[in-house]
């Protein structure tokens, strides 16, 4: 996607937020790392890169991946837990089961009235949790709305299939209104042998027209594919069109875990939470997605391990994010109402060092007026802290939409104020963004997003050599990591965490200091109410 660019705001004094490249051993974390100036000096790019290198070594030893449900993820969680425990945190591993999913083979081609091939990742994409099977049959349009696309409810009701001869055929549905999984399940229940969910086609945002990465959320028994809006229209309007769909997938229940670490000091009724997903996509090591966010958050936690904050700080490394935010959803789902009310805010750090980066800050007040609305009350104050940081560094920022497609989603759904950083995924950098942030216009923010080349050796692992040559000329890259973006964002993370560790008054009105006096049920009923969102802002798979 393209991020609306913001003007930088007046804010914190630049001298208070200067970072350093000097290596600091986590064991040297000092109790006086209790200000933004001190903590950002202790948190260095070199220190964060040590953890990213460790994640790469873990992937190398475990079939090239750190995906949840694999030994590579368990080793990553062990690494994080070991360092945090040694640093003195109260560390727990929250185990949960989830549906592990792996794609082994897929085919999407037209056999009639004339043969036609399509391009994977451009024209179509196999949806996550698609069932296995093969079908060659006619395509049947189900309640499409090609004149008022925003109003489409295609496939959302079982009654959409009433009177339709769909048995053994391929159901063509349109994105919109309900979850992809509901559409596919309704098609399967009606007797369809395969399903296609075309993009919605509403508005001018390319993400509503082009191919999208979607998840069904739960296992579906028939092959299910996403297509572009344009291809969907063609299929709907081609008399006698016949497609062959094939998918061979593995879906089985596996166990994974969240790693949760909390400071031993501070108010536990006004907890500051900060999280990053620890799992990679199954395709690769995930050094940027999300080794970057995980490593930066880990180094911040280690460097403030001896600090005694006014508010307890709870750090989280989520499992199974790539499977649909499952770790964060499980965590939030296990909270009592009282425990949820004790969380003052949530900060999310997912992909903070994309090689062709922008400095994306989640748009808490919806000032960009794009996509979803504002975050829960208090989110704008979180955004302001980040904006002031970047202003102090002389950096422009871009508005990242609260689509719900990262781990903040479950938190904003229950009304917890949220914010965070995001440097971009598979979307293409615009010429305007290249003028402001450097890099290569027309190339993806992360050219190795969800690929084996999201590694410390991207070209050797299949990345586009020409693109990476351009990026290396423009930036200081270490593998698929933009060192400048990593350095600046690591300091931004440190600044926000330490700021709210001492004072959340701008977010929730709580007085600064160790005193108590909360328990007023501030979150209930104030969520955005759209669950995991519509998915055009972040690169992770959309659910609807």
Tell me about the biggest sheet? 15 strands, mixed
Shape: globular
Please give the number of β-strands: 17
Structural class: alpha/beta
Radius of gyration: 23 Å
What this model shows, in words?
- This protein is α/β, with parallel strands linked by helices and 544 residues long.
- It has helices spanning 36-42, 45-60, 71-87, 180-189, 229-237, 291-303, 326-334, 337-341, 379-392, 409-413, 431-437, 465-474, 483-502, 505-508, and strands at 5-6, 90-112, 116-117, 124-126, 133-141, 170-174, 194-198, 224-227, 242-262, 267-277, 311-318, 343-349, 360-362, 397-400, 418-422, 477-478, 481-482.
- Helix 2 (45-60) packs across helix 6 (291-303) and helix 9 (379-392) packs across helix 13.
- The longest helix is centred in the last third of the chain and has 20 residues, at 483-502.
- It is globular and about 75 Å long.
- The two termini are 17 Å apart.
- Residues 1-27 and 524-539 have low confidence and may be disordered.
Note the main attributes of this structure.
alpha/beta, 15-stranded mixed β-sheet, two-stranded antiparallel sheet, 17 strands, globular
Secondary-structure blueprint of this entry?
Layout (H helix, E strand, L loop, with lengths): L4 E2 L29 H7 L2 H16 L10 H17 L2 E23 L3 E2 L6 E3 L6 E9 L28 E5 L5 H10 L4 E5 L25 E4 L1 H9 L4 E21 L4 E11 L13 H13 L7 E8 L7 H9 L2 H5 L1 E7 L10 E3 L16 H14 L4 E4 L8 H5 L4 E5 L8 H7 L27 H10 L2 E2 L2 E2 H20 L2 H4 L36
Parallel strand pairs: 5-6, 6-7, 7-8, 10-11, 10-12, 12-15, 13-14
Antiparallel strand pairs: 1-14, 2-3, 2-9, 4-8, 5-9, 9-11, 13-15, 16-17
Helix pairs in contact: 1-13, 2-3, 2-6, 6-13, 9-13
């Amino acid at each position: 996607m393209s991020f609306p660019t913001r003007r930088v705001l007046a804010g914190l004094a630049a001298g208070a937020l200067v970072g350093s490249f000097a290596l600091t051993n986590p064991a040297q974390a000092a109790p006086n790392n209790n200000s933004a100036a001190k903590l950002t000096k202790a948190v260095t790019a070199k220190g964060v890169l040590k953890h990213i290198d460790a994640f790469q070594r873990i992937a190398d030893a475990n079939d090239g991946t750190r995906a949840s449900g694999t030994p590579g993820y368990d080793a990553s969680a062990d690494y994080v837990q070991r360092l945090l425990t040694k640093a003195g945190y109260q560390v727990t591993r929250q185990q949960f089961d989830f549906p592990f999913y792996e794609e082994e083979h897929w085919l999407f081609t037209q056999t009639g009235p004339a043969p036609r091939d399509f391009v994977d990742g451009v024209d179509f994409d196999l949806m996550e949790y698609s069932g296995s099977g093969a079908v060659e049959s006619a395509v049947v349009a189900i309640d499409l709305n090609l004149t008022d696309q925003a109003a489409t409810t295609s496939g959302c009701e079982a009654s959409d299939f009433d009177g339709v001869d769909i048995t053994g055929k391929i159901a063509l549905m349109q994105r919109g209104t309900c979850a992809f999984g509901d559409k596919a399940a309704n098609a399967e229940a009606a007797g369809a042998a395969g399903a296609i969910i075309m993009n919605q086609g509403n508005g001018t945002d390319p993400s509503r027209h082009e191919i999208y990465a979607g998840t069904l959320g739960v296992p579906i028994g028939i092959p299910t594919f996403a297509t572009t809006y344009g291809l969907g229209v063609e299929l709907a309007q081609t008399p006698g069109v016949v497609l062959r769909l094939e998918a061979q997938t593995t879906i089985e229940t596996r166990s994974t875990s969240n790693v949760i670490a909390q400071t031993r000091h501070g108010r536990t009724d006004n907890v500051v939470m900060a999280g990053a997903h620890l799992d990679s996509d199954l395709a690769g090591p995930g050094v940027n997605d999300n080794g970057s966010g995980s490593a930066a958050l880990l180094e911040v936690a280690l460097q403030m391990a001896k600090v005694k904050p006014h508010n307890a700080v709870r750090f989280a490394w989520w499992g199974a994010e790539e499977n649909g935010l499952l770790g964060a959803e499980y965590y939030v789902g296990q909270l009592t109402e009282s425990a949820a009310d004790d969380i003052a805010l949530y900060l999310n750090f997912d992909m903070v060092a994309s090689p062709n980066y922008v400095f994306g800050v989640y748009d808490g007040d919806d000032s960009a007026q794009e996509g979803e609305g504002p975050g829960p009350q208090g989110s704008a104050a979180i955004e302001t802290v980040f904006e002031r940081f970047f202003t102090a560094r002389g950096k422009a920022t871009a508005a990242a939409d609260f689509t719900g497609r990262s781990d903040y989603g479950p938190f904003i759904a229950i009304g917890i104020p949220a914010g965070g950083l995001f440097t971009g995924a598979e979307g293409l950098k615009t010429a305007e963004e290249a003028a402001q942030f450097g890099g290569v216009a027309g190339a993806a923010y992360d050219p190795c997003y969800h690929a084996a080349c999201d590694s410390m050796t991207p070209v050797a692992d299949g990345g586009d050599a020409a693109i990476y040559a351009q990026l290396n000329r423009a930036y200081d890259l270490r593998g698929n990591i933009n060192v400048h973006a990593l350095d600046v964002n690591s300091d931004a993370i440190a600044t926000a965490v330490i700021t709210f560790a001492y004072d959340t008054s701008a977010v929730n009105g709580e007085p600064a200091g160790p005193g108590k006096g909360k328990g007023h049920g501030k979150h209930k009923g104030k969520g955005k109410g759209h669950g995991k969102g519509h998915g055009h802002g972040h690169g992770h798979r959309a659910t609807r």
